[in-house]
């Protein structure tokens, strides 16, 4: 451990981490223990579990969680481990249950994790002492976060996420499409690429066509950018949107999170191939020109939301060389596929950006692993 501490101390500001942090299993385990097990992680969407008994599983490191809505309507994160002999309870990744039944010896749990039925236990056995263990959970503006820490830290972004995402109505949305990508790169390379847009002009030409990120430091573009920002803030205020979250520098609020609403270039209203709507308006929007809502909660989540759809990304480290991305696209729950939206048009823009980023991360990983 002293060698690890020395390596951290030797880091030069403005430089990348040393190679072991991206390729060594020892440092990967440190990442899990000191980063992923200590803070808050995005698990999924509240609209995935709208009814009592709806659940989905979220696996991180060696832990499996059952994210479930109970009969009391509370969302819980139950460890997917029977209190009897340690067997996995839910082997199907999502679904609906009346009770949670362990397939090994049929121990039966309620949706709140309490043990309802045991088998072959002595008469003095107390069911109440053997409820399923629980992780900390927060359901905020339609997003579900969990913490594996013994004592969860305060969830600082809560108020800002509510103010940013409330108008998008994620609680009354549905997942229109999901894709999972396994990227041959350490999770930190994936996140480091996501945190900057210096690469955007060369690698994301479609993105640069409708977004200002690529020109934020271009002196020749500042008048145009500020004019668009001022027009957008005025319009958003008239729409009842919180313009205090419209930050033209997209600065971090704290070390691990940020939120922002940013305008598209003039003439564009959605993060799509042609910059136009591809689905019905979401939430409380009546005007499509609501800009692009963005949020990051590190180490595993970011989103981009237009007035007609939301795109979210969940990052899960598999090992020191593989990172799994869960990409979801959400629309208004009343929208009908084939009539109100086409999945191909809905995902085309973000899918292309995702694939461009995946190529970047994998190319960098090959170089980082080089001797």
TrEMBL record:
Q: Which CDD domains match?
A: Rieske_RO_Alpha_N
Q: Which GO terms describe its molecular function?
A: 2 iron, 2 sulfur cluster binding; iron ion binding; oxidoreductase activity
What Gene3D superfamilies has UniProt attached to this entry? Naphthalene 1,2-dioxygenase Alpha Subunit, Chain A, domain 1 (3.90.380.10), Rieske [2Fe-2S] iron-sulphur domain (2.102.10.10)
Domain Rieske residues, every copy: 41-146
List UniProt keywords, sorted A-Z: 2Fe-2S, Iron, Iron-sulfur, Metal-binding, Oxidoreductase
Cofactor entry: Fe cation
Q: Which spans of this chain does the record mark as coiled coil? A: none
InterPro entries per the record?
A: Rieske_2Fe-2S, Rieske_2Fe-2S_sf, Ring_hydroxy_dOase_asu_C_dom, Rng_hydr_dOase-A
Task: Tell me the protein's name.
Answer: Rieske domain-containing protein
